[in-house]
Amino acid sequence: MLLPRILTAIVGIPVILACIFYGGIFFQLMFFVVVLFSVMEFFSVTKKFKPMGILGVLTAVIFYAALNFNFYIREIMILSIFIIFFFAMLTRPVENISGSIALTCFGAFFITWSLFHMVLIRDIPKYGMQYIIFLFINVWLLDTGAYFVGKKFGRHKLASTISPKKTIEGAAAGVVTAVVVSVICRYVFMAEIITNVEAVIFGLVISFVGQFSDLAESLFKRDCNVKDSGNILPGHGGMLDRFDSYLFAAPVFYCLIQVIK
């Protein structure tokens, strides 16, 4: 299991860094791929509730394009929801139709909207590249710190019914790791952008919201008795498994930057 994880990281990290560095269309396309596979995996995970997967994926693609080009976003949302209801009426039995419609809309709109904030962060004038690197490094390392400390010293379950392997000790280590990493990032490449106090605030918020976001995705997998959202990334599971921490962390971090800066 460790070797596939390492090989995936060796290939994936340079691609991500290159897209971050060049920004623009490269970063937008990278997250189009992330959104596409994440939405597909979400519908696969929740298939027992019969979401309208194909329609949901098509809606997500159109919605991502609308967000990216800032093109009739509200109108496209309204029209898409109308179409989802229309197809539900035509193709779904009345029993459990609420779950089918709700999951289709959630997958198509929420996952797309939340992950699109990664593009918004990268597009922040002048310092977007630094902010997105800051977020990536924080999430990667806080997850690593939480994993290793939780595995070795974890005794008290954090949310046993949702994710049995996660512990309070591991979560606390994730918070400490994020704060330390944030301060280091501030001195290494963000000295002119944020203060030490802002670095600590960012680290605390990212660590709490990122770990919450991870648990939020686990709710669906636990309910559907699924371990991984997919297997597209050898050793890491699915795309949604790798980017679940950003579902809430990205929008919250983006909003926090707007408020503080």
Short synopsis of the structure:
Helices cover 77% and strands 0% of the residues.
Describe it.
The protein is mostly helical and 261 residues long. Helix content is 77%, strand content 0%. The protein contains 10 helices and no strands. It has helices at residues 2-22, 24-45, 53-69, 73-91, 97-122, 128-153, 168-189, 196-223, 239-243, 246-260. α2 packs antiparallel against α3, α6 (128-153) runs antiparallel to α7 and α8 (196-223) packs antiparallel against α10. The radius of gyration is 19 Å and the shape is globular.
Q: Can you give keywords for this protein?
A:
single chain, 261 residues, mainly alpha, 10 helices, 77% helix
Per DSSP E runs of 2 or more residues, the count of β-strands stands at 0
Write down the overall mean pLDDT: 92
Described by strand count, sense and barrel closure, the largest sheet is: none
| Cα distance spanning the termini | 42 Å
* Strand-residue proportion: under 5%
As a percent range, the share of helical residues equals over 70%
Structural class designation: mainly alpha
What layout of secondary structure does this protein have?
Elements: H1 2-22, H2 24-45, H3 53-69, H4 73-91, H5 97-122, H6 128-153, H7 168-189, H8 196-223, H9 239-243, H10 246-260
